[in-house]
Amino acid sequence: MKPSKKIYMIAGYNTISLGTGRKEFNPRKERPGLEHYIKEAGQATLKMIGGATLVDEGVVGNFMASRFNKQGHLGAFLGMIDPELRFKPSIRVEGACASGGLALITGIKSALSGSADVVLAIGVEVQNTVKAIYGADILAGAGWFARRKEGQAYFFPGQFSDRAGAYYQKIGRDKARQAMARWYRNAIENARLCPTAQEFENKVADLEAQGLTEPNPAAFTDHLNVFDCSKVSDGASAIAIVTEAGLKRCGVELKDAVEVVGIGHAADDITTLPADLTRLETIAFAARQALESAGITAQQLATVETHDCFTIAGILGLEAIGLAEEGQGADFVLEGHTARNGKIPVNTTGGLIGWGHPTGATGVHQAITLWEQLTGKAGDAQIQIPADKPYGLSVNMGGDDKTVVAIVYKKTT
Amino acid sequence: MGSGILLLTALEVADQMLRPENSGKHFVVNAVDVTSGALPGLMTYIRAQVLKAAEKKTVKLRKIYAGRPELIENSEIIEAYIADVMGIIRPGTRIEAAYDSTLVFEAVSENAALKTALFKQINENNANKPWIFTNTSSVPIGGLNSDASLDGRILGFHFYNPPAVQKLVELITIESNPAEMKEFALQLAKNMRKIIVPSNDIAGFIGNGHFMRDALYALGEAANLSASMPLHEAIYVMNTLSQDYLMRPMGIFQLIDYVGVDVVRFIMNVMNPHMASENLHSPLLDQFYDKGIKGGQFANGSQKDGILKYENGRPVAVYSLSDSAYIAFDTFKEKAQQWLGPMPAETIPWKNLIKAADKDATAALAFAAFKQQTTAGCRLALSYARHSRQIGLNLVSDGVAASAADVNTVLLTGFFHAYGPVNDFVV
Question: Which residues in chain B are closer than 8 Å to A134, comparing Cβ atoms?
Fold first, then answer.
């Protein structure tokens, strides 16, 4: 979908991604809840745009607060952020791990429809309320429940383990494992440059050796180890989606905004199995839609935020987006092209594996990373944006390639 | 019955019950404890531990319960497993529950007379001629076998505390054990995922055979040193030496406290009648015991005050027999350290040594440094380590352990030493 008028994103803010790896995280002690994260992220964005009175609507992306936190009705938390938001339209949207992306799409559609010039979009998830073995049950809700019984204990790691196994068959296990370990290394090294990242304090010296740890089928999955997986995370991200009028209303300069120039949004049939485990067809569809609507090719992108819930998802994502030919994703990574000094830096603040994966917040976090990179606000994680490639692409996936939101952002000045 | 042993047994029986080939068979674990009031707490503990075990092996449990379509989520499978395990256990206070059993796992105190009386009663009333596995750290099995007229249907399991966590098991068999009983015991221990070290049926076996003699050596050395310094300082010196110089997880007096002054004394008393050429007895330990100094652990595993006093898990004072009071380390520590002399830089804390790639080579560097020094600390450390080594060698020559490697395995896995006592670098 090509936006019918100019839409911008401004004033992004991420809380920390809390979970194992962060020094603040202690599973035996009480931790902040949904309210804390929603408030911290929401208030920070409101402060940057000039206050709650300027907001027309709110949208909250969240996957499973109903089970992780026994809390539904998240749209009605908007008024808790600031009393000025009470009685303003607000909804919660859900599309598994693409819930954050759906919050963005929903906000964009509100702005395009004319119903709002300033939308506060928040993504949030608090998952460390249960042990991982029970969290796996909750997250399995992103798949078709009728297949839960035949799935593995760690359901989604099991799904992507099967994809990894198929990819091993296709390109050779050793090369695939090496590329997955390199993906892990890149993710952690990027996260070390971002103070809010869950792996910011990771001190492991030989990350690739750690990434090459042999999978343990008896305790986890056949083809993935724990380093191939994003961690359990708590966190929230907030950003404002504005029209030109909204930008003026907030008094934010154009240089501090990114323009949304291309949108892809696709949902596949959740009851069907992938025809080819080595292809992410919905990502391919949505990314193509986003790039075509922006009028660019993948080769014109300066940077990409892709949904690496698992290292194999990151590599297959490169192929689906069109950055690498089919079956060449591993080589593309091993040749260094996705590193922060490569030809297309990917997941420059660590992605889901390095920054963290508070599921409902991830799509918004991706948008914020691209907003930071394209406006020069990424701090130590800043990469160079070539003048002839002023674009960034985010790809946010829900379930096993079932709901995908892809957005192309353009540097404004 | 010991809670840890009940847990391990129930988990193993449940695993057997859930095998397809055992479908329809009836499995029961009678959990007999003479104290009725202890049973609810025991069952609460078992349930909590089964939950932890189930959470760790959910990958396997999903396969085991694949044929139960109503069990879909991990949480449902975990609850089903807990229900199955708890359904096997029949808690009670009456020994008659063992009259129909085919296998009896006993875990009463280290009291040979009590064990014998129990076994006799069960044996005389049970037509199944049950196998009896006794949990003991010191009581000879042969004596129990003959005194209770068991015809070889008894063998020993020496679990280390807590049995549910500690990996080491000493398996003590006797010649008259049926071959299939020994095989079953070995497989059972393997299924419990234990490190199994065979020990011959000599009182104390390998673990206490080493520990009791090691403790006696330290008690004796402290008594000797008390000729030239106050006893409480001598105890501090020997505790520091055995922890810091020998790079062990805790000093010998802390270990005595951890096990319990009364328990150590009791085990020595159990072992001593079986020792022809040794006297496993410490008058110094008797003196602490007579003063009511017992040590031991609280329910959460933290140490009670004993010969040493503890704050936040660390010893901070030592009991003075002459003053009938604890004397803080801080009041004499500096003087004692000066007496020991500077500790060589090659000596590293146990927590670092245990992580070393080559622990023996790293420890050897420290002992090589000791040999180059003439300080009291280095001299005593070498003597201590050499004595520890000799205890290990004697356990082999006396036929308790099959090999020096078995002695080392027990000290490495049961006592968490970073290097085995039988090594070349202390010679």
Answer: 74-75
**Any residues with CB less than 8 A from the CB of A24 and at least 6 apart, and which?**
A16, A18
Close Cβ partners of A258 (under 8 Å, ≥ 6 residues apart): A8, A9, A10, A370, A371, A374, A375, A392, A409, A410, A411, A412
Considering the domain architecture, whether residues B372 and B238 belong to the same structural domain is answered as yes
Assessment of whether the complete model's pTM goes beyond 0.90:
no
Last residue of a domain, one of B173, B199, B225: B199
Residue A357 a catalytic site member: yes
B194 and B267 both lie in a single domain: no
B74/A219 CB distance under 8 A: no
Q: Which domains does chain A have, with CATH numbers?
A: 1-407 (3.40.47.10)
- B373 domain residue, yes or no: yes
Nearest to B59 among A131, A134, A152 (CB): A152
In a shared domain, residues B63 and B188: yes
* CB atoms near residue B82 (< 10 Å): 18
List chain B pLDDT tens, one digit each, 427 residues.
Answer: 578 899 999 999 999 999 999 999 999 999 998 888 888 999 999 999 999 999 999 999 999 999 999 999 999 999 999 999 999 999 999 999 999 999 999 999 888 999 999 999 999 999 999 999 999 988 999 999 999 999 999 999 999 988 888 999 999 999 999 999 999 999 999 999 999 999 999 989 999 999 999 999 999 999 999 999 999 999 999 999 999 999 999 999 999 999 999 999 999 998 999 888 899 999 999 999 999 999 998 877 789 999 999 999 899 999 999 999 999 999 999 999 999 999 999 999 999 999 999 999 999 999 999 999 999 999 999 999 999 999 999 999 999 999 999 999 999 999 999 999 999 999 9
CA distances from B293 to B208, B218, B256, B283, B345 (A): 21, 18, 11, 14, 36
Candidates A97, A194, A229, A309; catalytic one? A97
Q: Strand A301-305 and strand A391-398: pairing? A: parallel
B116 with B189, same domain?
yes
In a domain, B182, yes or no: yes
Are residues B179 and B246 located together in one domain of the fold?
no
Best of B51, B52, B59, B70 to disrupt the A interface by mutation (most A CBs within 10 Å)?
A: B59
At CA B70, angle to CA B66 and CA B71, rounded to 5?
Answer: 55
Number of domains forming the structure of chain B: 2
The chain A residue lying nearest B71, using CA atoms, is A149
Q: Which residue has the tokens 């702005």?
A: A111
Per the structure, the complete domain to which residue B96 belongs is given by: 3-199
∠ CA A345-A348-A354, rounded to 5°: 130
Q: In the listed set B199, B217, B245, which residue is the last one of a domain according to the structure?
A: B199
Shared-domain flag, residues B92 and B225: no
